[in-house]
Write a structure and sequence with these properties.
By secondary structure, this protein is of the alpha/beta class. It folds into 2 domains: 3-124, 3-Layer(aba) Sandwich (Rossmann fold); 130-229, Winged helix-like DNA-binding domain superfamily/Winged helix DNA-binding domain (Arc Repressor Mutant, subunit A, Orthogonal Bundle). It is 40% helix and 21% strand. The protein is built from 9 helices and 11 strands. The protein has helices spanning 11-23, 34-40, 60-68, 87-96, 108-122, 124-127, 156-167, 175-183, 192-205, and strands at residues 3-7, 27-31, 48-52, 78-83, 100-104, 130-133, 136-139, 144-147, 150-152, 214-217, 221-224. The strands form 3 sheets. It has a 5-stranded parallel beta sheet, sandwiched between helices. The chain has a 4-stranded antiparallel beta sheet with strand order 6-7-8-9, with helices on one face. Strands 10-11 form a two-stranded antiparallel ribbon. β6 (130-133) and β7 form a beta hairpin. It is elongated. The two termini are 25 Å apart. Bound molecules: calcium ion (CA).
Amino acid sequence: MAKVMIVEDEEAVSLMLRYNLEAEGFEVEQAFRGDDADIRLKEIVPDLLLLDWMLPGVSGIELCRRLRGRPETERMPIIMLTARGEESERVRGLATGADDYVVKPFSVPELVARVKAMLRRAKPETVSNLLTAGDIELDRETRRVRRSSREVHLGPTEFRLLEFLMQSPGRVYSREQLLNGVWGHDVYVDERTVDVHVGRLRKSINRGRAKDPIRTVRGAGYSFDEKFLG
Ligand code: CA
């Protein structure tokens, strides 16, 4: 599922957003200061950023400007949260590169709808329940995987690994990136664990002469082979 990062110093607002986004199935990360968010965003790139205007450390507008200056985050969807009466600042916000803005106090259902709409445009694969690539079909809602209409039984880690790789076909992930994306940041596991689970995933998904959708990139990591799509 899509990962949304909330950068907001008002804890009550942040918590309410987190609660509502998680209820919709989003993975949520929070930062409460602009400078903390800046550091974190050098480690991870969420699918969408909710960014408050007035923040301690580094302001939302300055953070937005910095993010647009880095290749990893230059196209990340950003929705700014602004206070009422900051009309001219809102214009500045968009000029600095935010994709959209909402004015506080905002309606939560409306904000959630905007988040979804923006993700549908920018990253459709993160909001759709069904991922398909070649003859492989992964359903996030039922947690089922099929290949050429044969049901494939995967363990929870193999499922998340396949889901993660299928979201960005062709993109090569290092073992460390896979650990962060699939196992989570707070989990300590050896990088070789990734190889073990990739091996299990391959074994389950490739039967007989079926083409292997996972590419091993020597010295780099793994990717979902974009050639497999054709
Ligand atoms: Ca604030």
